[in-house]
Specification:
Helix content: 40-55%
Radius of gyration: 19 Å
Strand order of the largest sheet: 3-2-1-4-5-6-9
CATH architecture: 3-Layer(aba) Sandwich
Number of domains: 1
Structural class: alpha/beta
CATH superfamily: NAD(P)-binding Rossmann-like Domain
Distance between the termini: 62 Å
Length: 281
């Protein structure tokens, strides 16, 4: 399949105010794509949009809370009004939660799935009628490497990301007769504010993922952004940014006992931190 020319093909991106979303928006604009940026923090969206415009790109900003269906529709409609069509959508907005499952409330679980799973469906549903009418398009979903390998204290987050991955794979087959590609994106740890926010929400200072993640398992958001643009040019079902992590997690599925032993250190660290906190309370 020849590479797709992305020039003048509009893309809408959720969670575009920082991290992977902002980096991807900038990279897409460099590839010639008009970009519609969606997130709740409008001032940060404006900063990203100004960077794109300063580089000669085109960008529009939409205040968007992805859990609200109407906001997702407004995001897609802005692309059509401003740029004439919608070619791609990147459902990137998400939240994290690092907490023992036994201590996780139903309210916390529902909030996580509302943002990470149901909001993804809201974004996709808003774009699909236009893509189906055009018989062309590309849907990208920001899942995670943890969709394939759940870590201790990340079970709920892993479940939501696995759900995103599964709908993406199913949609890729369902929508192929309409000329629409669907890809799931599986970043490893990224150096963004995502982890800081998740740590604050979870209350796990001292044992949160960034503090026990090897440096080689962390990447800059720009690495993910370049991988997304590469996929837009030459679509494939899954986007992984680490060969080692992708195949390591695949192998772990065949050897679950060994995989569990490999991550058991996280449990020991968590319990030690919890005892220390209790001793000082």
């Amino acid at each position: 399949m020849p590479k797709i020319n992305l020039q003048n093909k509009p893309i809408a991106i959720t969670g575009a105010s920082s991290g992977i979303g902002a980096a991807t928006a900038i990279e897409c604009a460099r590839a010639g794509m008009p970009v519609v940026l969606g997130a709740r923090r409008v001032e940060k969206l404006n900063d990203v949009a100004e960077r794109i415009r300063a580089g000669g790109g085109r960008a529009e900003v939409v205040e968007c809370d992805v859990v609200i269906e109407e906001d997702n529709a407004a995001l897609i409609n802005r692309a059509i009004e401003s740029f004439g069509s919608i070619y791609a959508v990147f459902a990137n907005a998400g939240v994290g939660l690092e907490k023992p499952l036994a201590d996780t409330t139903d309210s916390e679980l529902r909030e996580l799935f509302e943002v990470d799973f149901f909001a993804t469906m809201h974004t996709i549903r808003a774009a699909l009628p236009h893509m189906i009418e055009a018989q062309s398009g590309h849907v990208l979903v920001c899942s995670s490497c943890l969709a394939r390998f759940p870590l201790p204290y990340n079970g709920a987050y892993s479940a939501a990301k696995a759900a995103q991955h599964h709908i993406g794979r199913a949609l890729n087959v369902e929508l192929s007769p309409h000329g629409i590609f669907v890809s799931t994106v599986h970043p490893i740890g990224t150096k963004t504010e995502f982890f800081e926010t998740a740590t604050r929400r979870s209350g796990v200072e001292g044992v949160a993922m960034p503090e026990h993640t090897p440096e080689w398992c962390m990447q800059d958001a720009s690495v993910v952004a370049r991988a997304v643009v590469k996929c837009l040019r030459k679509p494939r079902p899954e986007v992984w940014t680490s060969f080692f992590v992708r195949y390591g997690m695949g192998i772990s599925g065949f050897m679950p006992r060994i995989a569990d032993r490999a991550v058991s250190r996280m449990v020991r660290e968590y319990q030690a931190a919890k005892r220390s906190a209790n001793d000082h309370s």
